[in-house]
Fold this protein.
Amino acid sequence: MDESRRILEESADRSLAKFAEPALLRQMEAGEDAHEVWASVAEMGFEQIFAGASDDPWRDACVILKACGRHVLPAPLPETLMAGALIRRAGLEPVEGPIALGSPRYTELALADAGDVTGRASHLAWGQVCRHAVLPMLEQILVLPLEGRTHSERNIGREPRDAHVFVSATPRAGGPLPGDDVMAAGALMRAAQMAGAIEAVLAMTLQYARERQQFGKPIGSFQAIQHQLAILAGHAAAATRAVDAAFERVAESEGDGAVLQFEAAIAKIRTGEAASAAASIAHQTHGAIGFTDEHRLHYFTRRLWSWRSEFGTAAWWSERLGREIASKGADAFWPSVTAAG
Amino acid sequence: MGAFRFEPTRLPPETERLRGEVRAFLAEAMPAIPAYIRAGTWSRSDAEFSRKLAARGWVGMAWSKTYGGHERSFLERYVVLEELLAAGAPVGAHWIADRQSAPLILKFGTEAQKQAIVPKIAKGELFFCIGMSEPDSGSDLAATRARAERTADGWVLNGTKLWTSGAHKAHYMIGLFRTSTDSKHGGLTQFLIDMKTPGITVRPIADLTGHKHFNEVSFVDVHLPADAVIGGEGQGWAQVTAELAYERSGPERFLSSLRLVYELIGRIGPNPDARQAAALGRLMAHLVTLRRMSVSVAGMLSRGEDPALEASVVKDLGAVFEQEIPGIAAELVEAEPSLDETQSFERVLAELTMIAPSFSLRGGTREILRGIIARGLGLR
């Protein structure tokens, strides 16, 4: 990582660490309004990365998204960033304020009169805070104002995943972009958050293993625990490497949809698998205390369990990627690996 | 923060030309051998093939020209290695000498040793084996009992080395011997041993497939000259630790089952079912990520950093990956592993199913690697 990105990472960690507190997370999960948290996040300026605030938006976004995961930020900064990436990709004017990002899987829009659209989108993260949503419709994306009533649902991280009905809504903007790109941007976003949260879970678990004493010594001195933590650390390293590499390749080839699809698949598959292993090992190491509401571990693991499914499971992305591999045949396999760099 | 740093190292664009050269070379020079034999890649020896590679400058790539090397970068070397492995080239003859013996001699050896040995390795003329494990000392390497005692004009070796890959074809061994019993780790010394020295007996040991590539090597009053010591007397442990970082860092630690992936894709055909497709996609995601981590390790080597920890992480993840492939392949296709050489998929499946247990043993067991990783995490 170069120096400027290291500084950005330190700055993001400093700014976002205060949100990873159980007291705040508990309030947010209980339904407290997120506008205040968003106002505080907006002051940091990170959400403008794809709107001209960065010379290297994909690489910078990767740093911020991982930090959002590391501190399980209860605000739609990841969605606003990636919606911004898609807005830019479609050649549209930047949009200010928090933006929700709709999954093609949970968006059903149809043209009404005079360019207006009617339909429904659900699973919108922090839809009630967001002023706009970026949503896929056919082979384009629309920027729609989120006006009127938004019905609130939650994932198992108790993060808002809201539903909104559009009746003859007038898009603020629209441009051509395949729905696959929306899915890929969402997958990269959740993959980066997972990599960050896995890093946090590793750090938490290592600390616990050094401090918790049983049989007269720290449990981390037992080989059975050491080997589990070695496995966890391996998954953490792989998840971070997969995500860093994916954003880097996408940055280099901005505009290349095939690279976006491939890298989103690699990142979502690898981090999804790492998330499952990390949550499992972290809970086993923490024992009963880690299973309590009081302990902070579950704020991370419940989100990992949600994020691994959102914007395509590892299995969904694997199947798509696998069909492509099979259709190209055995001789193309190794060249595809090396071409990915 | 991650516990380990895998810097986003990239293979420089100019290495793609080199990759093309290697692929063209292999298309022509690679002996026509069936897939199940290609599956053995770096465990199979072909001295003539090694000399051809050396003639192309692809042995000793990163070493100084003073000693016959080519002063190419570690990343260029990486590209050549992975292409050889991906093609299943029979690179076993020179592999160990190129990977670790010559780098060890260049790092710790005397000027005379460097001049006498390293240029011949670079020409693909001298092959090496590694004498580390013993009957009672495997993962507990510091329990080495084979001993070296001073004589009037040198050393005399006695003892037994075990699981010594390629000893029956190697010209030299770099062996770890006990020169003092005062300290477990401090009493070890590495020796450069001409395998023709009287008193050395090499007994091949068949593995469970029937192949004979590893050996028991016994030493009975083997006399070595005083200058056979590599590095410092009593420095063997530190030197071996450095050597193992080379041994554990390469792409051979996750590409061992690649041939079976090719065969599997061929057998599945262009229209996989959902289960087959998902398995192939997952393998690709793991492989691409492992390779990127491995290139990061090569980058650390090229910057002169110590990648021992990161190499252990890649080797551990890599072994899990390459070891699970035979089981995955066996479940995806209605076929039985077979020794019938006319059935390519079945034969490769048989070969890799049987050799896969060795992937997490050779070069440091899974348990030893996880211990090293745990130490890196501050748990030991």
Q: What stands out?
A: Chain B has twelve helices and eight strands. The mean pLDDT of chain B is 95.
